[in-house]
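Your task
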Amino acid sequence: NLAYMYQFGNGISQNYEKAKELYERAIALNNASAMNNLAYMYEDGNGVLQDYQKAKELYERAIALNNASAMNNLAYMYQFGNGISQNYEKAKELYERAIALNNAYAMCNLAKMYQYGEGVPQNYQKAKELYEKAIETGISKEHKSIVKKRIEEIKTTLEVFDKINNNKDENYNGTNMRKTESENDKETNMKQNSKVEELKQMITELSNKYVAREKTIRMLVNNIYHSRMIIEKITNDKTIRNNISTILLISSTGGGKTAIVSDIAKRFKVPWTKASLSAGYTQAGYKGLDLQNIFVDLINKADGNVKKAEEGIIILDEFDKIRVKEDSHDKEFIRALQKELLAYLEGSEIKLQTERGTITFNTSKITFILAGAFQDITEYDMDYKEERIQELISQGYESELLGRISLFHYMPKYTKEDYIRILNNSEISPLNNFVFSSSLYGKKVITSPYSPFIESVADEAVNIDKGVRGLNSIFSNILNWHLNDLIFGDSDIVLVDSYENLKRKKKR
């Protein structure tokens, strides 16, 4: 318990080293909770070097002592493939073991798998039962609010699909939201299985491309796919809007959010656009960049196809810039802007002035992704108290606007280890781009994944603190320093020395 206080700075100065030392002393006395807590530190790289294998070993030791929290945490690693091979069957088995020990959070996690059909047949009824059992068993006030919202979503979806089936089929039982025996059902199953395999492949490809962003990729793919299903199956605008998630991405500069969203949108063949809310947008009727111009841009991205644009994706970046500060001279103006934005998030028909004249545009089917840095929010806040995010950012926003946000997702800053993985493993590694540039001049690049060069570039990227954007700028410098050698030199390029030494040698 004292280790836990040191780990999170609860009433004392945060000290990871002291926390680790105390956990290890408790583990020597066979304390299962200490094993679970230290495993979590290793899994997340929280105050220690991230080590998934150590995390797994410690979780397994705690599980051998019947620790339900460790079962839940290791199940989560298997569910999302966090540092180990993804294994839904193993995740489900561990969640069920934890549930047998009355672990409410395992109930929530398994319920979510059933709700979205992640590794198990989609079963809204089972999901609903597990969520309700979690509330009954006892979860934090913050998590209870989230779970209640999910239960309401399931109830709405059950009602919608019940209407679709017209209650005609006696075999309809609420499971998988379709009839159970008909030929149509078998055909639907085959199509769904094929689509699931496509989605799995998409997630794998994107995770190989955007290293260290696996959780974000899975969340976005799942939600955007779910939005497509809702639009395809439902005709009522209000029901559609209530079932499409508005997502808040909390991410610093260069976190990769735009690249990932745009890539997913292209794969789903959905038009998308991005706008920065710090660019001087105003509410309709005021001088400035009219907020409605964003929808006009989306229509242009859809080649003028309004219906297609109405089903698109909009990223509203720097959402934290329209947060009202008490000492702000334009707070009333910003509040008015928030209210207009709220109307769009709730779903509304608006009149747009385009090159083709005035048109009516419906925002009910748009997937809105809000993004901002929110410097006062940490990964600790996201991991432990998701509802606390609303508390942290509630000041400065209209409560109704905040209430329209369905998902709060934190994208942690890249660590040194993440940058090393990007350089060595990512399909879009800037090192690969440098190798390609060198090949244009018939030159090879000689380096090693374990060279001082790779590690020092990662260190420099951490210092710059601009994410992949910063990493790319580093290699722009490296390319500039070597252009003369590439164009006029006879030798291959050797990149084994540290970045600092390279800078001293090459920078004039």
Remarks:
- The longest strand covers residues 349-354.
- The two ends are 55 Å apart (CA to CA).
